[in-house]
Design brief:
27% helix; OB fold (Dihydrolipoamide Acetyltransferase, E2P); 16 strands; alpha+beta; 8 helices; 2 domains; 8-stranded mixed beta sheet; 295 residues
Length: 295
């Protein structure tokens, strides 16, 4: 046996290697059958059932549309959507939801789907028969967000959203009343030129396509591209910026030298028509009268 192994050492190594690889592939395939996409399914199987209209205590608020109930399970409110962490209205929406439901018993009303892909219960949340999602939208802290099958309360919530928009209520629609990403309120700044007309926060610019308005916000990221086009990005660095002001090379001679350096890090107002480019709002700056630095 020993002489055989010595003579066929390479063959034996190849066979052992092949067996190890085959076993690894088997484990991977087995994992795909019960893991990967299925991992959520396995963990979801461990979540206890939650009958329709269950009464549960809210023990924690994750953000403006997600809570934790007694027992440790997550509940995502149906019909609304609020800002994620790092966006302007995250804190105010979360804080308001805490005021409304934290450490209180709520009724959890079921719709079509029981759980989402993150194994969170999908429920309307009611406190003393008041629809909390509807209230968040009415106060301008959330937007209406429905899938086709979820029709209950849809008309009420969408109407509340339109009324909040029309009356410019709350952080989502109130423009300058909202704080920016770094929680800096710009109300204490003074302005000499751009003081009239509609003035909104930079992260609300996408609600005003094809309208001439004034945008206020902080330029956190600015650069001059290879085509000598200056991009001034607001609130978050590219590509996650809320809004962008653009100065083409043909107009740069009208502005200060190196506008990408001069305006970077400053809170400014931009006036012009909001247009859409690659799914994001922007304003083209043709002359320096369209931009003002807050003092």
């Amino acid at each position: 046996m020993k002489p055989f192994l010595q003579k066929n050492k390479i063959v034996v190594v190849i066979i052992l290697g092949a067996l190890i690889v085959a076993f690894a592939v088997y484990l991977a395939l087995s994992g795909n059958l019960i893991g990967g996409e299925g991992e959520n399914n396995v963990s979801c199987l461990d979540i206890p059932s939650l009958p329709d209209n269950s009464i549960k205590m809210v023990t924690k608020v994750i953000d403006g549309d997600t809570i934790i109930i007694e027992g440790g399970q997550s509940v995502r409110i149906i019909g609304i959507d609020t800002d994620e962490r790092g966006y302007p209205c995250y804190d105010v929406a979360k804080n308001r939801l805490e005021e409304l439901v934290l450490n209180k018993e709520v009724r959890l009303e079921k719709s079509v789907e029981d759980l989402d892909q993150y194994c969170r219960y999908l429920r309307y949340i009611l406190l003393d028969n008041k629809n909390i999602g509807l209230q968040m939208v009415s106060e301008g802290l959330a937007v209406a967000r429905f899938y086709p099958e979820n029709v209950k309360y849809r008309s009420e919530i969408e109407l509340a959203e339109q009324e909040a928009k029309d009356k410019e209520i709350g952080c989502k629609w109130g423009g300058i009343g909202a704080t920016t990403e770094d929680n800096t309120n710009t109300a204490n700044l003074s302005w000499d030129k751009l003081t009239t007309g509609k003035i909104v926060g930079s992260c609300q610019a996408g609600n005003y396509y094809n309208q001439e308005i004034t945008i206020e916000g902080k330029i956190v990221d600015a650069y001059n591209s290879k085509t000598n086009t200056v991009f001034l990005n607001f609130d978050k660095p590219y590509p996650n910026s809320c809004f962008t002001a653009v100065i083409f090379s043909s107009d740069q001679y009208k502005f200060v030298s190196s506008p990408e350096d001069y305006y970077s890090g400053k809170t400014v107002r931009i006036k012009g028509e909001v247009i859409e480019y690659q799914g994001k709002p922007e304003i083209i700056l043709n002359n320096p009268e369209q931009i003002e630095v807050g003092k």
